[in-house]
Specification:
By secondary structure, the protein is an alpha+beta fold. It is built from 16 helices and 18 strands.
């Protein structure tokens, strides 16, 4: 007898309220009396909560990010961050020396290392004994560049160094958009920029993926002066050119009649930072990498490119300097980060010292699952901030203030 291939019916009901109210509802209802909502399923998605996909046809007219940047990957997965990533370079040099010179037992006793899946002390030791460090900086969290021992070898000092992608940030100057496949609603929308290799992130959401703008040859090929090439889908770029009435060129030209690879990235970066975009397509952004609408015309394209460029440079901290009356650090003391508290615009790092003029909207601002104005300091609890680190935090506050301002402008009509 042929089996019935029809899908099962699925019903949903949300019960909100205090515990006693919920108990009362359950005691006074049965499966037959609960006002269930029957769920309608899409062919490619089977959710167990109600979804509003009315804008699906409109949304799918845009291009997918992973189609635009076809070469992409999750970030580096170390398996043990503490074995290869440190705050300062000297700490990396010290642990490298220990891996080379100490026994497995001594390493385990000194650092508390235990073997885990795809990482063990012995393979980490062999990696650092045999292979050279080919990169030493990593974009660990938003605005948090740390140092690392990176050889590029899989299941060595790092579990998954993702060399096939990260080499494009090691072998030449580059930028890449950082996104996640899921959780794209409101404050948890994961969108950032990097010019360094990135870590996969330990936040409680989908992992970070990086989409490099340029592809570089391997180091050996650089000797022959082989040029970098854009990591862009030619069909999508041709469609952008057709709709905008502009001509695509690999190298930037001083004319508004042509656009270059960086302009494409800046356009995308601006769209993804638009609060209107995030709100309108929030249901779809929770499911997969985002789709970006094509530009309506050249005027709209260039306006968004300009905003995207400002955001890109800000988030890479290009030319950012501390400003008067923004996160100034007026009290002399130990500079040790002990207990954080934000009150009346002051961010206390210990009982007496604080950063002043840190607005509440900056303090709570999210990039992905992180609040950078808080996270950067929390990660340094127990450490003493030096002059450069104090200035770096002041720059973070400047950048977040300006980001909030630009995002508000992006909410305005683009005509």
């Amino acid at each position: 007898m042929e089996k019935d291939k029809k899908l099962a019916q699925v019903f949903h009901y949300d019960l909100y309220g205090k515990r006693n109210e919920k108990y009362s509802f359950l005691l006074n209802n049965t499966l037959q009396t609960v006002p269930w909502q029957q769920l309608e399923f899409e062919d490619d998605n089977y959710f167990f909560v109600p979804k509003n996909f009315e804008l699906k046809e409109e949304y799918e007219k845009g291009f997918k990010i992973d189609d635009l940047f076809p070469i992409n990957s999750c970030g580096i997965k170390t398996q043990r961050d503490d074995a290869s990533i440190k705050f300062i370079k000297k700490e990396c040099e010290a642990i490298k020396s220990d891996f080379i010179n100490l026994s497995n037992q001594e390493l385990s006793q000194k650092y508390g290392f235990v073997d885990v899946r795809d990482w063990n002390i012995n393979d980490a030791r062999k990696d650092l004994q045999i292979n050279n460090i080919i990169a030493d900086k990593i974009h660990y969290r938003p605005f948090d560049i740390r140092f690392m021992n990176y050889t590029g070898k899989t299941k060595g000092v790092m579990g998954y160094p993702r060399y096939d992608i990260m080499k494009h940030f090691i072998n030449g100057e580059n930028v890449g958009v950082v996104l996640s496949r899921q959780f794209g609603s409101h404050k948890h929308f994961i969108c950032f920029i990097t010019d360094q290799p990135i870590e996969i992130s330990s936040q409680p959401f989908a992992p970070y993926s990086v989409f490099p703008l340029y592809l570089y040859p391997d180091a050996a090929a650089l000797i022959s002066n082989e040029q970098r090439k854009p990591n862009l889908n030619e069909k999508i770029v041709a469609e952008i050119a057709q709709r905008s009435g502009l001509r695509f060129t690999i190298e930037k030209e001083a004319t508004k009649k042509t656009f270059a690879p960086m302009d494409v990235l800046d356009y995308v970066y601006a769209v993804l930072h638009s609060p209107n975009y995030r709100e309108r397509y929030k249901e779809f952004l929770k499911i997969d990498f985002p789709r970006v609408p094509y530009p309506e015309d050249a005027k709209t394209f260039w306006k968004l490119v300009k905003s995207g460029e400002r955001l890109r440079r800000l988030h890479l901290m290009e030319g950012v300097v501390p400003l008067p009356n923004v996160a100034n650090f007026p009290i002399v003391g130990s500079n040790e980060v002990e207990k954080l508290e934000h009150t009346n615009g002051k961010v206390y790092i210990n009982a007496t010292q604080y950063f002043d003029h840190v607005p509440p909207d900056v303090w709570i601002f999210f990039i992905g699952g992180y609040q950078p104005a808080q996270k950067w300091l929390k990660d340094r609890k127990g450490r003493t901030l030096n002059f450069d680190e104090i200035q770096h935090y002041q720059k973070i506050v400047v950048v977040l203030k300006e980001t909030i301002k630009i995002m508000a402008q992006l909410s305005e009509p683009q005509s």
